[in-house]
Write a structure and sequence with these properties.
Blueprint (H helix, E strand, L loop, with lengths): L11 E2 L17 E2 L12 H4 L2 E7 L8 E3 L3 E5 L12 E5 L12 E5 L14 E3 L29 E5 L3 E7 L2 E8 L5 E5 L8 E3 L10 H12 L11 H6 L6 E8 L5 E4 L6 H8 L17 E4 L19 E4 L14 H5 L7 E7 L5 H15 L8 E6 L6 H21 L9 E4 L8 H30 L4
Parallel strand pairs: 3-8, 4-13, 7-9, 15-17, 15-18, 18-19, 19-20
Antiparallel strand pairs: 1-2, 3-14, 5-6, 7-12, 10-11, 10-14, 16-17
Helix pairs in contact: 6-7
The chain binds guanosine-5'-triphosphate and magnesium ion (MG).
Magnesium ion binds next to α4.
InterPro entries: G_OBG, GTP-bd, GTP-bd_Obg/CgtA, GTP1-OBG_CS, GTP1_OBG_dom, GTP1_OBG_dom_sf, OBG_GTPase, P-loop_NTPase
Pfam families: GTP1_OBG (PF01018), MMR_HSR1 (PF01926)
GO molecular function: GTP binding; GTPase activity; magnesium ion binding
C-alpha cells in the first residue's frame, strides 16, 4: 500500500527551556515517540479504502519583531570566521523590524501512485508548520529589510490523495463541497496559513512628552471654538505584531474510481481472471465468491487510445476496473454491493461478465442489470458489452444457446423499460482460462469506447450549437 510522503510521521521534540524561561546549557532534548496509532486491519480495508475523515490545521502566522523606537540591536554575523576581519555581530538599526512569516498552508494533491485513502485512517489530525517569528537571524523578515529579498516561506503540508477524490468540509451535520481532484498533479488548497504579524516599532517608553508651543496654541484655539481635544495613545502596535492563527477544518474525503470500463457480474463469474488477461494487473483469483474485496485497476495493453476524440488530453490507454461481485439486493447493501456501485459513476462504459457454465445464464445477467437499475437507472443507459465467460466448459450448442438466452433477456429488458435500457453493444464468447475470444473481446471494448467518445463529442457539439440558438 503506497503511503504518501507527506504523511511520514513527524517527531515531537520536547521544549528545552526551563519553566522559568532560562535556556539550559547542555542539550537535554528528548524525542518523544509517536503514540501508537490504531492500525487499519487487512480485514477492514475494503470498508475504509475509499472514505476518510481527517482534521487538518494550517500553521499560525509568526509574530513580528518588536523594537523600541530609536534603538537598534546586535545580530549574529554569519560571515564571521574566527581570526577573520569580519565583526562577530553587526549592528542592526531598529528602524525596520522583521515581520513574522506566514503559517504553512494545507494542500491536497493527486498522486498517481496512491490508489486509496487508507493512510488517512492512521492520522486523525495533520498540522502544517507555524510561521517563524520575526527574527532577522532566521531570515523571516525579508522585504521590509531589503528590497528584492525573498521572504522565508513556511513549507505547506502537502497530502497525497488518489485521483477521483471528492473533498468536503464537515460543519456540524452539514457538508460543504470544497472541490474534486481528478487529474494527476491537480492541487486543492484546503486550509490557508495564518498571516505573519508585522514588525513594529514600539513607542519609546518614558515620561509623557510635554506638548510643543504650536500644539498648545492649536488646542487653545480649538477650545475657544468649544471643541474638546483628547490625546490618544497608540496601542495598536501590540496587535499588529501578532500573527493570525491558522484554520482547523474537518475534511471528508470520498474517493470514486476513475476508469473507462467497469467490470460487473455475479461473484465467481471470472471478472478478475479477465482483468488479468486483458491487462498487466494481477488480481487475486479463487474459486469462492467475494475473492475481490477492493476494486482492481488495470490498463489495457493494446489498442487505440481511450475516449479518442478528447483532443485536449494526450491519448492514454483505457483503464479497466474490476469490482467486487454483485448479488441480489446489492443496491440495498447486501454483500459488498452498495459500497462499490457508486464507483461506477465515473466509468464511461461497462463490461458484464457472465458465467456461461451456470445453470441460469439468462437469470444471472438479468439479476445484475436489475441491481444496476435499482441503484441508479442511469447505469442501464450506458454502453455495455457482455462477456460470456468459461466457454471452455461448454459444448458449441450450449454456447449458442447461452448467447441466445442472454440476447433474449436484453431485448426483453429494453422493451419493458420503453427503450431506456441499452442493448449490449456486443456479446462475446470468451474463456479466461484458455484465452478463447480474448482478441474479440479486446476489439469489442475498444469499439465501445470509440462509440462512447463519438457520442460525447456529438452531444458537446450539439450543446454548443444549441447555446446560441433561440427557440
Ligand atoms: N474453467 C474456467 N474457469 C474459470 C474461467 N475464468 C475464471 N475461472 C475460474 O472461476 C473462479 C472465479 O474466478 P474469479 O476471476 O476470481 O471470479 P470473480 O468474478 O473475480 O469473483 P469475485 O471476485 O468473487 O467476484 C476461479 O477459480 C477461476 O479459476 C474460465 O474461463 N474457465
Ligand atoms: Mg474477483
Amino acid at each position: 500500500m503506497p503511503i504518501a510522503p507527506a504523511l511520514a510521521p513527524e517527531r515531537a521534540v520536547a521544549p528545552f527551556h526551563k519553566p522559568h524561561g532560562r535556556r539550559l546549557q547542555s542539550i537535554t532534548c528528548a524525542v518523544l515517540a509517536e503514540p501508537a496509532q490504531p492500525r487499519v486491519t487487512g480485514k477492514e480495508d475494503h470498508k475504509l479504502f475509499d472514505e476518510a475523515i481527517v482534521t487538518v490545521r494550517s500553521g499560525n502566522g509568526g509574530a513580528g519583531e518588536v523594537v523600541t523606537k530609536g534603538k537598534g540591536k546586535f545580530v549574529p554575523n554569519f560571515k564571521y570566521k574566527p581570526g577573520g576581519q569580519q565583526p562577530k555581530q553587526i549592528w542592526l538599526p531598529a528602524a525596520q523590524p522583521a515581520s513574522g512569516a506566514d503559517g504553512g498552508h494545507v494542500i491536497l494533491t493527486v498522486d498517481p501512485a496512491v490508489d486509496n485513502l487508507l493512510s488517512f485512517h492512521n492520522r486523525k489530525k495533520l498540522s502544517a508548520k507555524n510561521g517563524a517569528n520575526g527574527d532577522p537571524a532566521s531570515g523571516s523578515s525579508g522585504p521590509h529589510r531589503k528590497a528584492g529579498r525573498r521572504i522565508a516561506q513556511t513549507p505547506p503540508l502537502v497530502l497525497s490523495v488518489p485521483a477521483g477524490t471528492v473533498v468536503r468540509r464537515k460543519r456540524g451535520n452539514g457538508r460543504q463541497l470544497l472541490g474534486e481532484l481528478l487529474q494527476p498533479g491537480q492541487q486543492l488548497l484546503v486550509a490557508t496559513g495564518g498571516q505573519g504579524g508585522n514588525g513594529v516599532v514600539m513607542p519609546k517608553p518614558g515620561p509623557a512628552r510635554k506638548p510643543s508651543l504650536h500644539q498648545r496654541k492649536k488646542t487653545a484655539a480649538l477650545q475657544d471654538k468649544g471643541i474638546e481635544t483628547v490625546e490618544v495613545e497608540d496601542q495598536d502596535w501590540k496587535a499588529d505584531s501578532l500573527g493570525s492563527p491558522g484554520e482547523e477544518i474537518c475534511l471528508q474525503l470520498l474517493m470514486r474510481l476513475v476508469a473507462d470500463i467497469g467490470f460487473v457480474g455475479l461473484p465467481n463469474a471470472g471478472k478478475s481472471s479477465l482483468l488479468a488477461k486483458l491487462t498487466r494487473a494481477s488480481p487475486e483469483v479463487a474459486a469462492y465468491p467475494f475473492t475481490t474485496l477492493m476494486p482492481n485497476l488495470g490498463v489495457m495493453t493494446s489498442g487505440p487510445a481511450a475516449l479518442a476524440g478528447d483532443d485536449q488530453w494526450a491519448p492514454s490507454p483505457p483503464v479497466l476496473a474490476d469490482l467486487p461481485g454483485l448479488i441480489d439486493g446489492a443496491h440495498m447493501g447486501r454483500g459488498l454491493g452498495r459500497m462499490f456501485l457508486r464507483h461506477l459513476r465515473r466509468t464511461a462504459a461497462l463490461l458484464h461478465v457472465v458465467d456461461a457454465s451456470s445453470e441460469s445464464v439468462a437469470q444471472d445477467y438479468r439479476a445484475v442489470r436489475e441491481e444496476l437499475r435499482l441503484y441508479n437507472p442511469e447505469y442501464c443507459e450506458r454502453a455495455h458489452v457482455i462477456a460470456l465467460n468459461k466457454m471452455d466448459l461448454l459444448s458449441p450448442e450450449q454456447a449458442q444457446q447461452a448467447q441466445a438466452d442472454v440476447l433474449g433477456v436484453a431485448n426483453a429488458l429494453q422493451d419493458t423499460s420503453q427503450g431506456k435500457t441499452r442493448l449490449p453493444q456486443a456479446i462475446v464468447a470468451v474463456s479466461a482460462e484458455t484465452g478463447l475470444g480474448l482478441a474479440e473481446l479486446n476489439g469489442a471494448l475498444q469499439a465501445m469506447l470509440q462509440q462512447v467518445a463519438k457520442e460525447k463529442l456529438d452531444s458537446e457539439k450539439w450543446g454548443q450549437m444549441s447555446q446560441g440558438f433561440e427557440w
